[in-house]
Amino acid sequence: MPTISQTAGRSLRPSSLGGFFRTLANGAYALFDGIERRSAVKMLNELDDRALRDIGITRSQIEHAVYGQANAELPRYL
Question: Is 66 within 8 Å of 41 (Cβ atoms)?
Fold first, then answer.
């Protein structure tokens, strides 16, 4: 059992502040990732069909190419 001198200066609560900042950082990363993906979709939509064919995708495959498999399965859960 810890003595009073061993617990002096320590918080009684576990460090929930670290969890808060970790959650905040994860939210910021998700936000920036979403902004970057939307920018990529917009940029690919601005290309002509020949440029898209050179890349190896068609216009209907743009969102799948940017968002990947997770976006393709999303409507199944809604």
Answer: yes
